[in-house]
Design a protein that fits this description.
alpha+beta, three-stranded antiparallel beta sheet
Length: 115
């Protein structure tokens, strides 16, 4: 039984990993266990969040790691409209089957939507 108590007394706690990030202009360049120049120490939960979300989607500002803010971009699609001067003659109103270009008659032209 004395050997058990000796083993318990000599037991050391496992070393916890320390994680570091390298930041340049609020963007995270590196996240890992190696301490590099100008590295900032982070917790394991923050490291896990960086790995799951991806470094390119996060920003380091005011001592906190936050998500990047993205602007919603409106997608402008082209649509087929009737044209009077120039355009295409379609076979049986099929937009994928162009018969002639720049002819007179019922003409269609691809145009972007106006806002």
């Amino acid at each position: 039984m004395t050997e058990f108590f000796k083993a318990v007394a000599q037991h050391q706690e496992p070393k916890k990993n320390t994680y570091y990030i390298t930041v340049l202009d609020n963007s995270i360049l590196y996240a890992g266990t190696e301490e590099k120049a100008n590295a900032i120490e982070i917790t394991s939960d923050q490291y896990r969040m960086i790995i799951i979300a991806g470094m390119e989607n996060l920003v380091f500002s005011d001592g906190r790691i936050t998500n990047k803010k993205y602007e919603n971009k409106k997608i402008i699609e082209k649509e087929l409209r009737k044209s009077r001067s120039e355009g295409y003659v379609l076979l049986e109103d099929n937009p994928f089957w162009i018969v002639q270009e720049n002819k007179q008659g019922e003409l269609y032209q691809w145009q972007t939507q106006s806002e």
